[in-house]
Amino acid sequence: MNERSFILDSIMHNKHDLILRAAEKIIAAGGIQGLSMQQVANEAGVAAGTIYRYFKDKNELILELRRDVLAQVASAILADHDKGTLEQRFKRIWMKMHDYGKQRSPANLSYEQYAHLPESNTDEIRQLEMGLFAPLQQLFEEGIKQGLIQPLNPRFLYAIAMEPSMALARSIRRGLIEYDEKDITLACDICWRAILIPNTPTN
Amino acid sequence: MNERSFILDSIMHNKHDLILRAAEKIIAAGGIQGLSMQQVANEAGVAAGTIYRYFKDKNELILELRRDVLAQVASAILADHDKGTLEQRFKRIWMKMHDYGKQRSPANLSYEQYAHLPESNTDEIRQLEMGLFAPLQQLFEEGIKQGLIQPLNPRFLYAIAMEPSMALARSIRRGLIEYDEKDITLACDICWRAILIPNTPTN
Amino acid sequence: MNERSFILDSIMHNKHDLILRAAEKIIAAGGIQGLSMQQVANEAGVAAGTIYRYFKDKNELILELRRDVLAQVASAILADHDKGTLEQRFKRIWMKMHDYGKQRSPANLSYEQYAHLPESNTDEIRQLEMGLFAPLQQLFEEGIKQGLIQPLNPRFLYAIAMEPSMALARSIRRGLIEYDEKDITLACDICWRAILIPNTPTN
Amino acid sequence: MNERSFILDSIMHNKHDLILRAAEKIIAAGGIQGLSMQQVANEAGVAAGTIYRYFKDKNELILELRRDVLAQVASAILADHDKGTLEQRFKRIWMKMHDYGKQRSPANLSYEQYAHLPESNTDEIRQLEMGLFAPLQQLFEEGIKQGLIQPLNPRFLYAIAMEPSMALARSIRRGLIEYDEKDITLACDICWRAILIPNTPTN
DNA sequence: AATGAATGAGGATTCATTCAT
DNA sequence: GATGAATGAATCCTCATTCAT
Known about the structure:
Four copies of one chain form a homotetramer. By secondary structure, chain A is mainly α. Chain A has a domain at 80-203: Tetracycline Repressor, domain 2, CATH 1.10.357. Chain A contains twelve helices and no strands. In chain A, helix 5 (58-77) packs parallel to helix 8, helix 6 packs across helix 12 (181-195) and helix 9 (134-145) crosses helix 10 (154-161). The longest helix of chain A has 20 residues, at 58-77. Chains A and B meet through helix 2, helix 7, helix 10, helix 11 and helix 12 of A and helix 7, helix 10, helix 11 and helix 12 of B. Chain C binds a DNA duplex through helix 3 and helix 4.
């Protein structure tokens, strides 16, 4: 094995990931319905049969991809999540989530495809989601304990304060609204203040 | 055709709708992937070939269903949308949207399946969505003109104030959080106040 | 539908049987391993998908064929099985079995293929076989009651007296021995006398 | 290669046989249809590719296995075939054949799988079978010369006198009849006397 | 010699769509 | 208009075989 392929290996170090990335790309472009194993094979540059050395079947490929993409999203969004004040931490996550959601990257585009599958909201995936977003939940709980954030179920707080971040990102990505940094910053601030206990000066 | 079927006709006045309802039900249960024309035919009580008298092909069936469901959603949410103060109007829509989204009705369950299809966000559907939600947009614009609501693009306002309504409904429907009327009322109020211009007393 | 196809229908009155005959032919020529659904479709002159309107899957096709062939064999062998003395009845069955087994007909050739499948000796098939060969069993039992035939389990008697009939037929069919009517008649007589109680004059 | 493997080698002296035994076992369990080269490799504890060092392809593996099993059967059945009177010799072979056929050993179970393959009744296999069963043929011929056994083609005699032995063994192995030594001894005697020239006292 | 990853043709099965009745 | 049998392309998956290491 030569040096070049060694370097490539460090980026995409095996066929398992190569196949995962191919599937991700295809799902991003055509949805889960548009995913055929032959397409994945073509995109990954392997034979169809090779996929089955790495994944038991199509279901498992999709499931692993889901796990993988979830991990990508979480790591992108939660970088440095523990630095600074609560407000800084919240806004950093909000903005990262927004920035991530705006991308047309395969990972992001495919991410949305899994969320609304009827059958697939397995307990396992749910656990995974909860684990990955634990830091956010913790942030909310800290805020509640400090008497800063409204004493609501973290999922309420997430729905109120974070969903708008993704919704705006989606609208921008789809070209429905133009991106304006000032507006986004404002929206982020609105979301933050929305979950605070009223009459609490935040600065 | 006898009288009885005439009465039925006034409810489901033709096979076109019969097929649409069957497709809706199947998508609600098994997602768009789980939709086969034979299943639709069985559920609708017609022959497979009959579907093609009313719909050019499967794509068009799905597209029409999407239009149809969108109209259902809009009519459910926008009933009485023009009665009362801005706040009353907003909260009525917010609550109706929430109540609708909580349901396990075929219409609602299938609704989510279309939203995230990659290809299908046609201009036509976009126009339709905009038309149907025009009253909400108008509400926002009135609020802005009155100096009550923040002067932001209505889609921003929608993302900040309305997405949480649907997100909460989804979480409740999926059993992730328990329904508590007081909390929902609070969330609705938070969403409303979030888009107001600060320091504006709302009552 | 014209007259000709009506007549054909009375011979091979539907696709179900058409497919069964095609499968039988292919198995006769190439064994069960050589049976592909596409081949069956080609041989039957139908599309591959059509097979699945008549048979749930390949297994069921094979199972039904097995039942069908078993019935063919039985009806060929057991015609007039109840006419005449015990000896005449036995010899008639023996000869018919022999004649049938000598044929290169698809039914006969495929028949042997099922017999030695490891998994497929289902209870159902076993019941079927027993039912079809009930007349033979009855013949043995009558002979035993009359003190003519040795008081052995009918399966013993079958093994001793009937298996040679099939074995000889197979050898002739495969060209290992030449057919000689006199010898066959002798073999038949030997088999009959073999199961009689010794010192019983049979004429 | 150390001493221990040298001893093992004397039992199963090379991979060729190791692979053969693995294939035999798999065929015994699941029929020829259930034989995949990967399974054979796993069972034999070698890599899939290794099989191809010893066998040109799957067909040849099966063919060699067939030869091998045939030799096993013959050696098991024909041990001491030349000791004693004709009757003793016949009955010894008959009983050994019966005992062998009753076993659930891989060799025996796989043996039946080859017998009814349509294509594979090659001349070569035929020659092999004839060679291996030559002693039996010789026994028949001696009996004929002595005026003891009916002057029939040895294959006739085989069909009449020996097939029941295997047929009974099969029925016992499959649980269709219970094993009873007395009955088997009787059946063996019946088979022997069946091919004798009538009115010839055998003792 | 041995390995086992990779190949890709071939097999079973599904399903949107057509069309003779 | 309605039917549903028939079609056959497309899909998932298996497995005999090859070949770089």
